[in-house]
Every structure is written in C-alpha cells, then in structure tokens.
Design goal:
heterodimer, A: alpha/beta, Peroxisomal Thiolase, Chain A, domain 1, 19% strand, globular, B: mainly alpha, Non-ribosomal Peptide Synthetase Peptidyl Carrier Protein, Chain A, 58% helix, transferase (chain A), EC 2.3.1.179 (chain A), fatty acid biosynthesis (chain A)
Amino acid sequence: MARTDVVVTGIGATTPLGGDVASTWDAMLNGRSGVSALTQEWAEQLPVRIAAPLAVDPAGLLDRVKLRRLDRSEAIAIIAAQQAWADSGLGDSGLDPERLGVSVGSGIGGALTLLAQDDILEASGPRRVSPHTIPMLMPNGPAAWVGLELGAQAGVHSVASACATGAEAIALGLDMIRAGRADVVVAGGTEAVIHALPIAGFSSMRAMSTRNDEPERASRPWDKGRDGFVLGEGAGILVLERAEHAAARGARVYARLAGAGLTSDGYDIVQPHPEGAGAVRAIARAIADADVAKSDITHVNAHATSTPVGDIAEIKALHRALGDHPVLTATKSMSGHLLGAAGALESIATILAIRDSVVPPTINLDEPDDGLDLEVAANKARHMDIPAALNNSFGFGGHNVALVFTRA
Amino acid sequence: MTRDEITAGLAEILEEVAGVNPDDVAEGKSFTDDLDVDSLSMVEVVVAAEEKFGVKIPDNEVQNLKTVGDAVSYIAAQS
C-alpha cells in the first residue's frame, strides 16, 4: 500500500523577529537579530542580561479576560495557531472536527505562571492563588487551548522533549495522519520563559552566552567566539494535512513533510554525544523515511544553538549521515533559542527556504570554528535550488529529531 | 455602604475578572445563568469581594450566592 503523503498547508508564528511569519521571514532573510538587553529590574543580578523577547506582545491580540486565564506560552500558541489556521483556508472547508488533531508542545511549560503565583502565595497566602493556576501551568495547556480554539476532536497531544519538542510535535502529527487518526493536525511548539529563574538555571549550567554588552552579536553558532545560547520566546505552528485531502479542496501547499527520524542518545542527561551518534541515526532515519536521495537534500536548518560542544557535534553528525554537499544555516543566530518552539519555527524557515529557493543567513559568523567543515550561508542569504531540506532539533535528555521537507 | 454601592463594587469586580458589562449587573441577575460567570471565575469574584469589602465569605456560603442580590445581602450583613 502506498504511504500516505502529508503536506503543509498553513503556517503561523510569533517570534522575536516579528509578530507573524511574513515579518519573521523578512527579518531572517535580512539577517536581523532579535536579541536585546534585558532592562527589567529582575535581570540586574543575573550573569546573563540578554534575551530575544517577542517582537509583538500578545496583549491586545487576544481578549483581555481570556488573556488573564492564559499563561504567556498558551496565549502565543493560540495566536500562532490562529494565523496558521487562517493561512490554511480550512476554516470554512467543512472539515469534520473528529478528523482534526492537535500536537503542540512546550519545553518548560507555564513557568511564568508558576513563578507569579508563587509570589502571590508567599505574599498573600493560598486563598489569593488564582483558580486558573493549574490550567495555566500544566504542560498540556497550550495544546489544549489550541484544540479548544479550533474545536479539534481527533486527539490533542503535547509531547515534551526539551529543545526538540517543536520538531517532535510535528513528527507526531505526521504519525497521526499516516496512521489514519486524523486528516489535519495543527502541530508545533511554544515557549515563554524569559524570567530570572529559568535564566539563572540555564546560566548555572554555563549553557548561555554572557555577551551582555553586545546582545545582537551574542548568538553566534559555529563562530570561534561563541559562548552559549541566547534565550528566546515565541511560538510556531504548522497545519499538516493529508495530501489527498489538501488536493481535493484545492489547498495551497507550502511543502511536503516527507519524513521524520527520532532517536535517543542513551548517553547523558544534558551533554550531546560527542560524535553525535544519536543525531546520525535520527538523520539517517528521516532520510530513509522520506525516501529521498541524499543529493536532493541541499540545505540543512541546523539545531546549532551557539554552544561550544553542541555546534560541532552536529557538524560531525551531518557529515556522517548526509555528506558534505548541503548548505547549512543556523537561524538561532537571529531568533535566539526558542527551546520547545525552536523546532517548529525552524521547520517554518526550512519550508520557506524550499519555497523561495533561498537559505537564510547565519549571522555573527565572523571567524568559523576549525571544526566547521561544511558550507554555511554565512552572514548573507544564499539563493540556490532546494528540492529537499533537513531540519535538526536536539533536546536535553538526549532527544534527537530530524525532519525532511521536500518541494510540494 | 448602601446596597447600590455594593452592587457597583461587585460590577467592577465582575468586569475585571469575567468581562461582564457593568450595565448588566443588577440584584436580580444570576451569576451563572445571566452573567455567564463560570465556577473558576466565581472563586476569583469571591476572593476579590472579600478584599474589596473587608468581609469573609466561606466556601460553604458561596453556593447560596446564586444572584447578585444574594451576594449584596451577605456582604451588607457582614460589613
């Protein structure tokens, strides 16, 4: 039996680079940074005082009363999902809600709510803690809210695999459609944890850049001067659709989600395997699943977070699994690291790279690391033919997810 | 505090917490049936009312407060 084809018919995002996909993509192609100095009082004592906040705040985009019942990660998931849904044209298509699923995850969950309500608990006692606290901080909250918003009844799921979450959520959506459980799955990731505790935690791991005096130059994947990632916030959502279903309604198709590969390192809770062994297997599985020739994969949107060890481990993995022909980019150099939303935002960038035949730049790549022996669209977008492209995402816990998109 | 003043105070809370139009708030209105205040929002209304009017509204009393008028009477008797 022929494999069920799955295509992308809608995309939505709110990111440090723009309040929607168009503005985000435009900023990426122009090599803009979304990183800025944290000027809040709570940041004064932190070793890291830079981040990539949303370009457009959710306040004003959703009803005021609704917003006070939503964690920021939930609010922006809804905003991105509304955009993707409108973009797909499915709203008035008569889609059976029982054939509509949701797969949206977050790396950390409703941490801002947890912290804010703990402040209230400490200051005013338990009776003052909001009755909306639990639905605001539960990790399935963003998926549940997106499902409610769209009336999805085929299943609402929320995977969690740290910084691989967005990509894994998309892979689960692919599985749902292939398995026949849904015709359409709204899939992606969301994250909003720019606050003192998450920053202090990552910072204590020595995982974050402390280039506080040069925010826009702090996220610099593969550059010799890189010293850690820059925390970003945002949400990215894709509408995945059974190809025949999309064709029957004459939908505009961005790209085909051709395959996914998921593996686990079994090596360390936070350190990537030094040779990227788990990543090699994930990439190989994704290529095999997609049934495309390696030579057709001419572009890779890499995970590359700007950490000293991870960036080069991924290069080794790409060499082994894919070869030396693809042109790489690390869009985190501009967006910062959106953790659980990263794989979703970068999937959108990968899809648009295929559509527009252009690789967005990796900015701040002034002095390439000696271990970088693959080609990168350094500091400037590169126009080229991209029949197929790969998007990598790796997460603390040893999660490796590779997605292959091809031209529709 | 007069009943009208308490009603006005409750209307402010209901607008903030549940987005209820203050013009819709009157003593005869039911919180759930007329004003669409769900159970979680009702908890918020009660806590905000305790703070605003300096009263205690125990959980076992809340179920008796069906209408705005019920709440006004309870608050008036306590304050």
